[in-house]
Write a structure and sequence with these properties.
The complex is a heterodimer of chains A (727) and B (126). With 727 residues, chain A is an alpha+beta fold. Helices cover 63% and strands 13% of the residues of chain A. Chain B is built from five helices and five strands. In chain B, strand 3, helix 3 and strand 4 form a beta-alpha-beta unit. The chains are: A alpha+beta (727), B alpha/beta (126).
Chain lengths: 727, 126
């Protein structure tokens, strides 16, 4: 009964150990570099070892060994708990470098405790109480550092639980579930194992339950397994499922195999195979079966490399080549990548594309060949003989000249690439590195490739031609644009010169005109000093001449202004100008005339208003409008000048209204035209050039404003204009 | 009083020089006349007038050049130069002032008597 009990314990221990190791191993395989994975593996390894060492510690035959193994178990346990703690700190991250100092120190402490536990300072000895068959019952004797050990062995699990709890609280969703199960497994296992392996042993001096310790790790394993499968814990579900199936099958095989061996061996040799040996055999069998496959393929890979043999996957290669061809429009990239792949996969020494344009080799793109040798006339001539053939394999060539050429150039296979029956390229391949010939399979693959390659290469060629064309076109467009700009600049300069000359002409013309006019007026003035003494007739004639000369003067000024405006050389400078002083100035100047005609003047110009205009021209405009209002007014009539702001439009609105003779309706459409005179019966004596309003409107418009009028014959006229307000 | 202040009138139009000469002499000045820049400069050097009435638009040396030369020559630089021109542009006036003109009268802005008055007040009014 004890035997069966012990054997079942043994089986359980083995099973526990294997499962723990298995899960840990899979996690490591999933990601060799992840911190969590690595630490988890270490932890599971230590758990596995603990199962083993725990078992061994109970079945030793003498005192010394028992003590030794007990100490080993202690060390193991300490390391295990340290690893557990580290795992909870690191989980679920993948970076070991971020661990904070306190954690590192704690881990160090754990390791030190583990080492110390091998010494007499923790368990100084054991008292063997009884021997039951092959098991020993013993109680440990506490050493001076036992409290320290106790601290570690209790402290780490507690810390682990705390850390896990904290992380569990912070997590959400599936991760939370994972943490829950992980945490539960740890808590239960810890609780139970500490009970049997620590509490009972130390406080009740009962060591017989120690054996159950490893069994409790099944809770941890079980919960981990559950969360792996259910919640994809550490993402190894698929690997687990696949490997479990594999292992179960393998385990069954191993067991069957081992049992047979056991039985046969016993029968043949009569030697009884001990329990230990039995276990060892099973373990070795499983190990051998697991590793055989990978061992074999590793050796094969090694020798392949050495011998350059290597069967490549035809379909994979073809698909790869197709992929390259459909993804590249640039002919260099296309050929380069294809050649790279061919050389690598088919393990050949050299390869090259010869690009053909109208039977001439225009380009050679390859690796391993000396390009110029391939692109010679010799090659062209000989190849020319064989246009139309599907492909050339060196061994099968009958024509001696071609064969010699192939040998000289080191070509083993030459594959023409055609589009619509015409060759556009050749693919030349050197010998295989392994020395083998090109098999039918190889040639078939190359043939299939060739037909696809034709289109791809053609496209690439067309594309590069298109690019060259586009570039050429771009260049020409740029050139033309430049030329156009140049000529436009010249035109502009010419136009400006013409305007300048026109202006110069006008200017000098008026200057010439002015001189005699000024002279006439000047002399008239000199004469006028004595004019009082003239007889009546002479006086009248004299005044007439004075008037005429004044008229001429004004006319010349007006003409100059108009000519300048039309040539675009009238220098109008817009700046903020206060309207009020200007209008006041004008009214002051015209005051004598107003007084003379007994005109009533009302001015409504509120405060200062800044408008954007040319001060001088504004003065001219106002002078013209006011003087018109005076000239065409009746004796004792009225003039009103008002200005106000139009808020929405940010403009100044100015109005000059007179109660004069107005403008006849049939003449109103010509008011702003050149040489317009509003001459009626009553205003026939009015002096004017007829250019005033034309110039006024011109000036207002040049300053960004608008001009308008309204008039009723016999009642009066109103002239208005607007100007932009300055900010 | 306005005793014999010597003015040099440099103006290319004989019509105008006759006109101004008459008016200025009536106002009490001694008036010398030159019809171009060169002659003007040599007369200025010789007679050293107190004032020079200078036109801008002249064939050969224009008024600005003459002005510059007047101011460069130690014999003539003390004369007060008044520009009398039909050119009304502000830039022209500034240019003249920069070159050393004492004043600028636009011919066409003023009547003859106004012009003369201005010159009189300039030389004897300050």
């Amino acid at each position: 009964m004890i035997g069966a009990y012990l054997n079942s314990i043994l089986l359980f221990s083995v099973f526990t150990a294997l499962s723990n190791f298995f899960i840990g191993f899979l996690v490591l395989v999933k990601n060799r570099k992840g911190a969590t994975n690595v630490v988890f593996f270490i932890f599971s390894l230590l758990v596995t070892l603990w199962s083993i060492t725990n078992y061994f510690s109970l079945f030793q035959e003498d005192f010394v060994n028992t003590l030794l193994w007990v100490r080993i178990v202690l060390c193991n346990a300490a390391l295990m708990f340290t690893a557990l703690y580290l795992l909870t700190v690191v989980f679920p991250g993948s970076d070991l470098t971020n661990i904070k100092r306190p954690h590192v120190l704690l881990v160090g402490f754990g390791i030190i405790v583990a080492v110390v536990s091998l010494s007499p300072y923790v368990f100084s000895s054991i008292n063997i109480s009884s021997v039951n068959g092959s098991t020993m019952n013993f109680q440990p004797v506490a050493g001076p550092l036992l409290p320290l050990y106790a601290l570690a062995v209790l402290g780490f699990p507690i810390l682990s639980i705390l850390t896990l709890t904290k992380k569990y609280r912070k997590a959400s969703g599936v991760v939370r579930e994972q943490f829950k199960w992980f945490l539960a497994g740890v808590v239960i296992t810890f609780f139970l194992t500490s009970l049997t392996n620590f509490v009972l042993v130390n406080f009740l001096k009962e060591a017989s339950f120690v054996v159950l310790g490893p069994f409790f790790t099944m809770f941890l394993v079980g919960s981990l397994a559950y969360t792996i499968l259910r919640h994809r814990f550490l993402d190894i579900r698929i690997i687990v499922i696949r490997t479990v199936a594999f292992f179960i099958f393998l385990a069954l095989l191993a067991v069957v195999y081992a049992v047979i061996l056991y039985d046969v061996f016993e029968r043949i040799t009569g030697i009884e195979v001990g329990t230990t040996l039995f276990i060892a055999i099973i373990a070795l069998t499983v190990f051998a079966m697991l590793t055989f496959q990978s061992f074999q393929s590793a050796i094969r890979r090694l020798t392949d490399r050495f011998l350059f043999k290597g069967i490549y996957d035809h379909e994979a290669l073809l698909s790869r080549l197709t992929h390259i061809m459909s993804n590249n429009l640039d002919i260099d990239l296309l050929t380069g990548q294809v050649i790279k792949v061919l050389i690598k996969e088919m393990r050949i020494s050299k390869a090259a594309f010869l690009i053909i344009n109208r039977h001439k080799i225009t380009d050679v793109k390859g690796v391993g060949y000396q390009d110029h040798k391939l692109a010679s006339f010799e090659v062209e001539r000989i190849f020319h003989k064989f246009y139309g053939y599907p492909f050339f394999v060196f061994e099968d060539i009958s024509d001696p000249e071609l064969k010699e050429l192939f040998r000289k150039l080191d070509i083993s296979v030459l594959i023409p690439i055609r589009v619509e029956g015409e060759e556009i390229a050749f693919l030349a391949l050197g010998a295989k590195l392994s020395g083998e010939i090109y098999y039918q399979g190889d040639v078939d693959l190359l043939d299939t490739f060739a037909s696809e390659a034709g289109i791809a290469i053609q496209n690439a060629k067309n594309y590069s031609e298109l690019q060259a064309l586009t570039k050429g076109l771009e260049k020409r467009v740029l050139q033309r644009t430049e030329e156009l700009e140049e000529s436009q600049k010249k035109e502009l300069a010419k136009a400006q010169e013409v305007a300048r000359l026109k202006d110069e002409f006008v200017f000098f013309a008026t200057h010439e005109l002015r001189t005699p006019i000024t002279a006439i007026r000047g002399f008239l003035e000199l004469i006028s000093y004595g004019a009082e003494r003239f007889p009546r007739d002479l006086k009248n004639n004299f005044h007439a001449i004075v008037q005429a000369s004044n008229h001429m003067n004004t006319l010349v000024d007006d003409l100059l202004e108009i000519a300048r405006s039309e040539a675009g050389t009238l220098g109008i400078q817009t700046a903020p100008v206060d309207f009020v002083p200007v209008i006041n100035g004008v009214l002051e100047e015209t005051a004598p005339l107003i007084k003379e005609k007994l005109i009533k003047l009302t001015v409504y110009v509120p405060k200062s208003m800044n408008v954007l205009c040319d001060a001088g021209k504004l003065e001219e405009v106002l002078e013209n409008l006011v003087s018109n209002a005076i000239k065409y007014n009746k004796e004792g009539g009225s003039i009103s000048v008002s200005a106000f702001i139009i808020p929405d439009e940010k403009r100044l609105f100015v109005e000059v209204r007179d109660s004069g003779y107005g403008i006849p309706k049939d003449k109103q459409d010509r008011v702003f035209g050149k040489f317009f005179r509003a001459l009626t019966r009553n205003t026939s004596g009015v002096i004017g050039t007829g250019l005033g309003l034309f110039i006024t409107k011109m000036l207002i418009e040049k300053m960004g404003g608008e001009m308008a009028f309204s008039s009723v014959e016999g009642a009066g006229s109103t002239f208005t204009f607007t100007l932009q307000l300055a900010e | 009083m306005i005793k014999h202040t010597i003015l040099l009138l440099i103006e290319d139009s004989p019509l105008l020089t006759a006109m101004y000469q008459a008016a200025l002499e009536k106002a009490g000045f001694d008036v010398l006349v030159a019809h171009d820049g060169e002659t003007g400069l040599s007369i200025a050097k010789e007679k050293k007038p107190s004032g020079i009435i200078l036109d801008i638009l002249m064939p050969g040396m224009d008024g600005y050049e003459v002005l510059k030369k007047i101011k460069e020559d130690k014999d003539t630089r003390n004369a007060k130069v008044i520009i009398l021109s039909i050119v009304a542009e502000k830039e022209a006036q500034e240019k003249a002032k920069k070159l050393g003109a004492a004043d600028y009268i636009v011919k066409t802005d003023l009547t003859l008597s106004e012009t003369v008055e201005k010159i009189v007040s300039f030389f004897h009014g300050n």
